[in-house]
Amino acid sequence: MSVFPQKVRIVEVGARDGLQNEKAVTTADKVALINALAAAGLKDIEAGAFVSPKWVPQMADSADVISALNLPDVNLSALTPNLKGAQAAHAAGIKEFAIFTAASESFCQKNINCSIEQSIERFSDVMEFAKAHNIKVRGYVSCVLGCPYEGEIDPQAVLYVSQKLLALGCYEISLGDTIGVGTAKKVTELLTLLLQHIDKSQLAVHFHDTYGQALTNIYAALNLGIATVDAAVAGLGGCPYAKGASGNVATEDVVYLLQGLGIKHAIDLQRLSDAGWQITKALGKQPVSKVSIALHAK
User: Fold this and answer.
1) Residue 184, pLDDT above cutoff 90
2) Three-state SS for 151?
3) From start to end of the chain, where are the E strands?
4) 131 part of a folded domain
5) CATH number for the domain that contains residue 293
6) What are the tens digits of pLDDT across the range 113-153?
7) What is the Cβ-side half-sphere exposure of residue 191, based on CA atoms within 13 angstroms?
8) CB–CB of 214/251 below 8 Å?
9) Rounded CA separation 36/239 (Å)
10) Could you tell me which residue, 110 or 207, shows the higher pLDDT?
11) What is the rounded distance in angstroms from the CA atom of residue 170 to the CA atom of residue 167?
12) pLDDT tens digit string along 210-231?
């Protein structure tokens, strides 16, 4: 039996997870994007990443971007993989940190040069700092439905890592289908297991649309009562670990799905679409969002 949530919270990841996998745009373009997303009604926006500019040059101006924003009603978050990043994010005024690991040992080793256990241990000082400064922390788990190195991932591994991050102090776990190989059946099986041990209010889904399954996967998650969905305006970003992979599911397409299901979301679809066209113009491309392209053609 369906238990669709009455309201869904969208975490907009285009300005960070999206743009870090695109060619670099100006600080002014990023500020304009985040302001446009806020004006469209988005209340949770990933605004930057406090990581080494050597590894992610697209996010080198995160402190400048965040300092230029004045959005008291918006929850701005940033990726903070270590204490140095957490301190810099706090200094910029960030009130929510994001930390990330994976359900795949191989992915963890290739992506952050350590084991899953080591990655979680590394976060303890970030968590202490967050607690001392009353900052919420969100945990991301990559490769929950498949890995570019290991193939299929055991749902028990996802459960183990999710519980570890919750025990560490994360308020929510974002389950990432990093290479977009998930299907509705696999999503349902994974979430059915997780929901036996973790409350649905502590789980979010983060789907990439590599095989065109993201909306179907979100529908499957909504069907089990999941009420937080990550998405990127205009479908920004590609997956650097899967050649030719498209990026995150487009926020416009998610909003249209929610509208069709009668689920509240509080987002102005036209304004959201306009924000997508504005940033893709700066990138020299078109939105990936089918909904946005259809609206634009009217």
Assistant:
1) yes
2) strand
3) 9-12, 44-49, 75-79, 96-102, 136-142, 172-177, 203-207, 228-231
4) yes
5) 3.20.20.70
6) 889 999 999 999 999 999 999 999 999 999 999 998 999 99
7) 30
8) no
9) 25
10) 207
11) 7
12) 899 999 999 999 999 999 999 9
Give residue 4's identity as a one-letter amino acid code.
F
Are 89 and 97 in contact, with CB atoms under 8 Å apart? yes
170 is a catalytic site residue: no
Q: 97 CB contacts (<8 Å, ≥6 apart)?
A: 77, 78, 79, 80, 86, 89, 126, 130, 135, 136, 137, 138
Tell me whether residue 154 is in a domain: yes
Q: Is residue 201 within 8 Å of residue 165, measured between CB atoms? A: no
pLDDT category at 55 given cuts 50, 70, 90 is confident
What is the Cα–Cα distance from 184 to 117, expressed in whole angstroms? 29
Whole-number Å distance between alpha carbons of 3 and 290 = 27
Q: Which domain holds residue 144?
A: 9-297
Q: How far apart are CA 298 and CA 280, in angstroms?
A: 19
**Structure tokens, 37:** 């997303």
Domain count for the chain, please give it.
1
> Which one of 108, 143, 170, 239 is the catalytic residue?
239
The token duo for 67 is 């300092």
* Encoded tokens for 105: 């040992």
Letter string b/e over residues 169-179, b meaning 16 or more CB atoms within 10 A of that residue's CB: bbebbbbbbbb
Within a domain: 67 = yes
**CB neighbours of 2 closer than 8 A, spacing ≥ 6?**
223
Q: Name the band, by pLDDT with cuts 50, 70 and 90, for residue 112.
A: confident
Residue 53 lies in a domain: yes
